[in-house]
């Protein structure tokens, strides 16, 4: 039996879930890929559903930890905070591409566990995003617009490359696994913050004069 068989099971499962889908992957497939006895999967996770729940929980616990680290920079300004959140979340997802791809696809399915995640992790995520954007509007860093729509755009920027990996590689010929792409794409997110979310510096000065 391989060392760290629990980790080997998760790695094998995520790889197969991405390739064949959750329903198209069997316990036997996972055991074969991980080079372990299928009984170990029952020991650690009870069944395939338990393994799915474990993968989702691990992803979102770490995702939220990175989000909270970024949120701590709010005292330095809303723009800086939003960029720091983007950096933390983007790097986490890039460092766990296979898991991120699987989780984001799984979250598009209406299921009990997805609904639970929506009412726990995503509710907290929405609260943090809302607080950052609201502060940016209050301090006249951000343009006055729909907070909900800004959140949609921000979430889309962070998730789209992982949901459309085949399109990126086969059609656009850019490769999410490469460090160059990760660094360049993060720059694009920062430019979105500066150009779309933030008020132009000249207009910001004008707004400050009017309120003073």
Short description:
With 212 residues, the chain is mostly helical. Helices cover 78% and strands 0% of the residues.
Taking the sheet with the most strands, its summary is: none
- Cα-based radius of gyration, to the nearest Å: 20 Å
| Beta-strand share of residues | under 5%
CATH topology of the largest domain: Tetracycline Repressor, domain 2
Give a topology summary:
Elements: H1 5-20, H2 27-34, H3 38-45, H4 48-71, H5 78-95, H6 97-106, H7 112-119, H8 121-138, H9 147-163, H10 165-172, H11 179-197, H12 201-211
Helix pairs in contact: 1-2, 1-6, 3-4, 4-5, 4-8, 5-8, 5-11, 7-8, 8-9
Question: Would you write up a description of this structure?
Answer:
There is one protein chain. With 212 residues, the chain is mainly α. The chain folds into two domains: 1-46, Homeodomain-like (Arc Repressor Mutant, subunit A); 54-211, Orthogonal Bundle (Tetracycline Repressor, domain 2), CATH 1.10.357.10. The protein contains twelve helices and no strands. The protein has helices at residues 5-20, 27-34, 38-45, 48-71, 78-95, 97-106, 112-119, 121-138, 147-163, 165-172, 179-197, 201-211. The longest helix is centred in the N-terminal third of the chain and has 24 residues, at 48-71. It is elongated. The chain starts with a helix and ends with a helix. Residues 205-212 have low confidence and may be disordered.
């Amino acid at each position: 039996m391989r060392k760290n068989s629990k980790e080997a099971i998760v790695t094998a499962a995520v790889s197969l879930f991405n390739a064949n889908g959750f329903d198209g992957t069997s316990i036997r497939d996972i055991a074969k890929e991980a080079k372990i006895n299928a009984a170990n999967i029952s020991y650690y996770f009870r069944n395939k559903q338990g393994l799915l729940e474990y993968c989702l929980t691990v992803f979102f616990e770490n995702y939220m930890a990175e989000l909270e680290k970024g949120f701590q920079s709010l005292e330095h300004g809303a723009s800086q905070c939003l960029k720091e959140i983007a950096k933390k979340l983007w790097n986490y997802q890039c460092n766990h591409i296979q898991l991120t791809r699987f989780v984001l696809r799984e979250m598009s399915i209406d299921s009990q566990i997805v609904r639970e995640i929506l009412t726990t992790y995503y509710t907290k995520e929405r609260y943090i995003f809302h607080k950052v954007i609201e502060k940016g509007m209050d301090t006249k860093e951000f343009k006055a617009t729909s907070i909900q729509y800004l959140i949609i755009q921000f979430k889309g920027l962070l998730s789209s490359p992982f949901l459309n990996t085949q399109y990126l590689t086969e059609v656009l010929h850019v490769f999410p696994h490469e460090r160059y792409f990760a660094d360049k794409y993060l720059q694009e997110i920062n430019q979105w913050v500066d150009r779309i979310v933030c008020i132009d510096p000249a207009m910001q000065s004008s707004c400050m004069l009017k309120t003073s």
